[in-house]
């Protein structure tokens, strides 16, 4: 079809569906841990990076299985089945109603959900990692030797399908996750958010199987990684046997393998080891890079995502693939040629060093954003302190005096004050003075708590109600809190959409209730005794509100909004600079790193370098889970600074290592070996001919 083997279209579609499945699931994973399984941030981060590390360790296993045992087709087929089962198990494990027998909205046996989720993630890691090294190589196998141009176009289409799957899924699955579903109670829809990737993985499997009769299936030819491992192992063992001083030293420790392995293989492994030595500092970059899906997503939950439409915290990850698609051609066609015109020797290793530096700066930017977020948080009372907020629900102004002579505050009608902090040992009472009336309220406040005093002037006396707020921190995960206060003179029943707040006596206050989707508008109803309704204004993300129900005019409820805790004020757009810096770092580091690695190793050793590269990603994620699990750092901005400093130190070390590296041309070395082999073959042929001539003379 258009000069291409028909089979490759099935492979490209399969890759698109598989990448949609993986990135879609991964996008919502951190919030699933924190919001559904209710794990704290550090533990959720550790498990997330354990999963990613496993996804980058299993490709080595997949490559060995494909090259040494099953072949690429069967490896992809069998591990795709494992993959699809894993996605399905994860989706089932996220069903809230699975063990919610008492229908209260919380699983009665959360351990069942956790167990299913972990089994699902392990199967997914085996599946996605196992097929990762096989699919692109299997696609390349479909072409004949004279189809080099078509093969190159296929790889472009292949990587386009990866980016398309990543972009689309990162946009779609967080939106599905933010919707509500459930049998008994409506909550964030994780079963569907994981279910859609599971369906896409099943589609990928079906598409791959449909094309099975068209594929060219190359038989397993042995895995070079095993051969390399055996050669290195033999060299070490042989060197240990001959450790006595009576044995002469050899130029390189790998030369001790020359008794069993030919010189060409040993020379090739030497070239590979020179590159792998440079890989040692690289995991630190991946430790920083892969926190987009964990720490940066958690950071976004404390930010304002209003872009005229609501962006979900886990959708901010889409900035990276969008910038990659834009920046790779820009850098290749504009930046690098400009640097070359300036006659600067911008070698691959220098590009990687600059990439590391930019990665470090990305985390400095993240730290600065985190400081702004922390500064926007409310200050809660410390030990020995309490806070009081005043709400005047009356029609005349009032003055409140805190005794003994601590502070005096004027409160206008239908207005509130901010929270005021007092030492609990000093504050004894307060006096409310409104018009010609006066009321004294004796106080016995608990330390570390917030209180709200609602009051209004009546015909004969001042009515007041002091309530404990029962909120000790800013609402998490971008959710908001709302409560109602009855400003009618009769008992009323209050509802907001399907949520019933119960009956409220005059001036009494309901408990706070969670608003799952603060960006929505809700219908507030009050029975007084006839029903009055009004639409609420949109609530801010991460805020807490008190709504005063004041009056009913022609069945329209008159309400007043009071802000107890300010919503998220730092905009998500402030994350774009850190994403931009990290994407620049990725273009310079990752793309250049693979290009450099492949240029410095023989063609038959590229799979060894790919395995080493993936291993650096896995180790980088292990570094994050160690830091997240063992760090005693309390402030998130300080952890960002720590990672930035570590990467900067590693950047300097890598720059020093790179300065001692000498670039080689593996093709020249290969040609030299070919020349020597031909000379040896010619000598052997001449020798054989001479022996034959002597034999004939005899």
UniProtKB/TrEMBL annotation:
> Where would you find the membrane-spanning parts of this chain?
46-64, 76-95, 110-131, 152-172, 192-211, 271-289, 318-339, 351-371, 611-633, 640-664
Q: Which GO terms describe its cellular component?
A: apical plasma membrane
Keyword match Transport: yes
Positions of region (Disordered):
674-698
- Where does the UniProt annotation locate this protein? Apical cell membrane; Membrane
Q: Which reaction does it catalyse?
A: N-acetyl-D-muramoyl-L-alanyl-D-isoglutamine(out) + 2 H(+)(out) = N-acetyl-D-muramoyl-L-alanyl-D-isoglutamine(in) + 2 H(+)(in); L-alanyl-L-prolylglycine(out) + H(+)(out) = L-alanyl-L-prolylglycine(in) + H(+)(in); L-leucyl-L-leucine(out) + H(+)(out) = L-leucyl-L-leucine(in) + H(+)(in); L-leucyl-L-proline(out) + H(+)(out) = L-leucyl-L-proline(in) + H(+)(in)
Q: How does it sit in the membrane?
A: Multi-pass membrane protein
What does the entry give for GO biological process? Answer: protein transport
What broad class describes the main subcellular location of this protein? Answer: membrane
Pfam families with a match to the protein in the record: PTR2
Q: What does the UniProt keyword field contain? A: Cell membrane, Glycoprotein, Membrane, Peptide transport, Protein transport, Symport, Transmembrane, Transmembrane helix, Transport
Q: Name one GO molecular function term.
A: oligopeptide transmembrane transporter activity
| Family, per entry | Belongs to the major facilitator superfamily. Proton-dependent oligopeptide transporter (POT/PTR) (TC 2.A.17) family.
Assembly and partners? Interacts (via extracellular domain region) with trypsin.
The entry's function note states: Electrogenic proton-coupled amino-acid transporter that transports oligopeptides of 2 to 4 amino acids with a preference for dipeptides. Transports neutral and monovalently charged peptides with a proton to peptide stoichiometry of 1:1 or 2:1. Primarily responsible for the absorption of dietary di- and tripeptides from the small intestinal lumen. Mediates transepithelial transport of muramyl and N-formylated bacterial dipeptides contributing to recognition of pathogenic bacteria by the mucosal immune system.
What name does the UniProt record give this protein? Solute carrier family 15 member 1
């Amino acid at each position: 079809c258009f000069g291409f083997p028909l089979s490759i279209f099935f492979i490209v579609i399969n890759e698109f569906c598989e990448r949609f499945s993986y990135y879609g699931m991964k996008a919502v994973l951190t919030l699933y841990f924190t919001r559904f399984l209710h794990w704290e941030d550090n533990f959720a981060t550790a498990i997330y990076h354990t999963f990613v590390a496993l996804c980058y360790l299993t490709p080595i296993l997949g490559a060995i299985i494909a090259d040494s045992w099953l072949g690429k087709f069967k490896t992809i087929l069998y591990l795709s089945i494992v993959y699809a089962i894993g996605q399905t198990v994860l989706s089932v494990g996220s069903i809230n109603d699975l063990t919610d027998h008492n229908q209260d909205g919380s699983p009665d046996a959360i351990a069942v959900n956790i167990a299913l989720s972990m089994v699902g993630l392990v199967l997914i890691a085996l599946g996605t990692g196992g097929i990762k090294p096989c699919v692109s190589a299997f696609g390349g196998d479909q072409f004949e030797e004279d189809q080099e141009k078509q093969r190159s176009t296929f790889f472009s289409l292949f990587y386009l399908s990866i980016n398309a799957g990543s972009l689309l899924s990162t946009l779609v699955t967080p939106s599905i996750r933010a919707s509500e579903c459930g049998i008994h109670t409506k909550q964030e829809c994780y079963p569907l958010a994981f279910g859609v990737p599971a369906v896409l993985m099943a589609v990928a499997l079906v598409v791959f199987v449909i094309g099975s009769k068209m594929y060219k299936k190359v038989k397993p030819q042995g895995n070079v990684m095993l051969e390399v491992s055996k050669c290195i192992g033999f060299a070490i063992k042989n060197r240990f046997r001959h450790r006595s001083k009576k044995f002469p030293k050899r130029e390189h420790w790998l030369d001790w393998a020359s008794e069993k392995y030919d010189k060409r293989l040993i020379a090739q492994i030497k070239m590979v080891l020179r590159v792998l030595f440079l890989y040692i500092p690289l995991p630190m970059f991946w430790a920083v890079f892969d926190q987009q899906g964990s720490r940066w997503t958690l950071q976004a939950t404390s930010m304002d995502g209003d872009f005229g439409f609501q962006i979900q915290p886990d959708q901010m990850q889409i900035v990276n693939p969008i910038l990659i698609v834009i920046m790779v051609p820009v850098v290749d066609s504009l930046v690098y040629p400009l640097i070359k015109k300036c006659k600067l020797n911008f070698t691959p290793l220098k590009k990687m060093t600059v990439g590391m530096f930019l990665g470090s700066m990305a985390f400095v930017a993240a730290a600065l954003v985190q400081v702004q977020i922390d500064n926007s948080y409310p200050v809660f009372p410390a030990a020995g302190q309490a806070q009081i907020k005043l709400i005047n629900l009356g029609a005349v102004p009032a003055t409140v005096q805190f005794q003994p002579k601590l502070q005096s505050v004027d409160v206008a009608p239908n207005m509130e004050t901010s929270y005021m902090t007092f030492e609990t040992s000093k504050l004894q009472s307060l006096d409310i003075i409104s018009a010609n009336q006066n009321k004294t309220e004796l106080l016995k406040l608990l330390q570390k708590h917030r209180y709200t005093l609602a009051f209004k002037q009546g015909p004969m006396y001042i009515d007041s109600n002091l309530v404990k707020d029962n909120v000790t921190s800013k609402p998490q995960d971008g959710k908001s809190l709302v409560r109602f206060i009855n400003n009618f003179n009769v008992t009323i029943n209050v509802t907001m959409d399907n949520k019933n707040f119960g009956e409220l006596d005059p001036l009494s206050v309901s408990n706070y209730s969670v608003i799952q989707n603060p960006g929505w508008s809700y219908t507030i109803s009050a029975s007084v005794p006839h029903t009055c309704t009004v639409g609420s204004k949109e609530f801010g993300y991460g805020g807490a509100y008190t709504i005063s129900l004041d009056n009913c005019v022609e069945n329209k409820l008159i309400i007043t909004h009071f802000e107890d805790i300010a919503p998220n004020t730092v905009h998500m757009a402030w994350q774009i600079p850190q994403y931009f810096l990290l994407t620049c770092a990725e273009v310079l580091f990752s793309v250049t790193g693979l290009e450099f690695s492949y240029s410095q190793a023989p063609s038959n050793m590229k799979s060894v370098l790919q395995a080493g590269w993936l291993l650096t990603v896995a180790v980088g994620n292990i570094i994050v889970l160690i830091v997240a699990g063992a760090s005693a750092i309390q402030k998130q901005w300080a952890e960002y600074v720590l990672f930035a400093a570590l990467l900067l130190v590693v950047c300097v070390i890598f720059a020093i290592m790179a300065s001692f590296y000498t670039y080689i041309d593996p093709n020249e070395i290969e040609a030299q070996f070919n020349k020597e082999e031909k000379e040896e073959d010619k000598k052997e042929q001449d020798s054989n001919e001479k022996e034959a001539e002597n034999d004939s003379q005899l």
